[in-house]
Amino acid sequence: MNKVSFTRLITEDFNRECKDMALYFLGKILIRKLEDGRILKGRIVETECYLGNEDKASHSYGGRRTPRNEPMYMPAGTCYVYQTYGMYFCFNISSKESGAAVLLRALEPLEGIDTMKSFRNIRNEKQKENPHCLCNGPSKLCIAMDISKDNCNKLDLSDQENDMLWIEDDPNFKLEEFSVVETSRIGIDKVESEWAKMPLRFYIYGSGSISKRDRKAEKLLDGNT
DNA sequence: GGACAGATCGCCT
DNA sequence: GGCGATCTGTCCC
After folding, report:
1. Cross-strand pairs, A30
2. Measured between alpha carbons, how far is A79 from A71 in angstroms, rounded to an integer?
3. Tens digit of pLDDT for each residue in A195-223?
């Protein structure tokens, strides 16, 4: 058996254009180290692109630049964590182009599942027993991984000294062996339909941890094989 | 499976 | 002052 080691992503790994990065992240491992040393790991299975300037669904549409979205303009690999609906967080990572970022929408929990459960506090008995329910949404994964604006916003994921949050490549995981579903983004119905429909959401076909499956797109993939 | 209402507050206009 | 890149429970088919 060859020994294959997990490697942490570095600056050049993050230096990609938004769509390329969203696809590149699929299958990678997001790792969170808590203050008490506990480790939480999840495989990234769903991502979404938010482009700059021309993207009407993006916080940076029209070049808007405010204190909140400043991380979208910072170097590739910078965390953009913002609060929404007064009580939830969304976790993005800035890409190469200024003003663009990739939203992490879902993870498949791999390690620290009991800790994630304790953070999520799920009431529904069936969901409670299913790890796939822990991180299958952008704000759920923030709760499960203890990612908030206070502790992770503007963090540099390419900084090898940063031991709070980072991403590793899993050499045993080959994205080519999976189908990737390309579909429209979630929760942006109010923007001009052209941009609402744009296929800027990506997920690994067959993962049990997807926030919202697109059965039509999956059927088309089935037809092509 | 889908539709809908309510929670709740930082951010931007 | 109004509005969310969401989640949850409820109601209905």
Report:
1. A42, A167
2. 7
3. 999 999 999 999 999 999 999 999 999 88
- Strand C nucleotides, any atom under 7 Å from protein beta carbons: they are 4-9
Q: What is the pTM of this model?
A: 0.96
Instruction: Please give the Cα distance from A195 to A62 (Å, whole number).
Output: 14
Structure confidence by residue, pLDDT tens digits, A77-126: 999 999 999 999 999 999 999 999 999 999 999 999 999 999 999 999 88
CA/C1' separation A138–C6 (Å): 8
* Contact in structure between A153 and A128 (CB atoms under 8 Å): no
Give the separation between CA A95 and CA A9, rounded to whole angstroms: 14
- From the CA of A64 to the C1' of B13: give the distance in Å: 13
